[in-house]
Amino acid sequence: MESLLAEGWPEAWVEAWAQAEAESVLKILQYRGVAVSDEVRERVMACRDEATLDRWLFRAPYVSSAEELFDLDADGERSEERAAESAGGVDGESDLRKRGA
Questions:
Q1: What secondary structure does DSSP assign to 62-97, as a single string?
Q2: What is the pTM of this model?
Q3: Where does this protein have compositionally biased stretches of type Basic and acidic residues (predicted)?
Q4: What ranges do the domains of the chain cover?
Q5: pLDDT tens digits along 21-74
Q6: Sequence-distant (≥ 6) Cβ neighbours of residue 78 within 8 angstroms
């Protein structure tokens, strides 16, 4: 939100944008039939970070559970896969390649 405010957007517009972005994330999940717990709904609706909302909006069409919105790093890799890869893995292969994905 800070970047939008820095660009001169009125605070009420920025708040409305953030709310609409959060609602869009939830609507995509709902449309796809992905169950959304009250905890996930509250977390999404409370978020006011522009980059986080954008990331969740881009992820929503692809996750199989609502919680996966929060499990992925900014570049879309699962954090546990990134940790295994940075720990050396087998011959530097990612977990995805090892699983044949």
A1: T-SSTTHHHHB-TTS-BHHHHHHHHTTTTTT--HHH
A2: 0.64
A3: 75-84
A4: 2-72
A5: 999 999 999 999 999 999 999 999 999 888 899 999 999 999 999 999 988 555
A6: 71, 72, 95
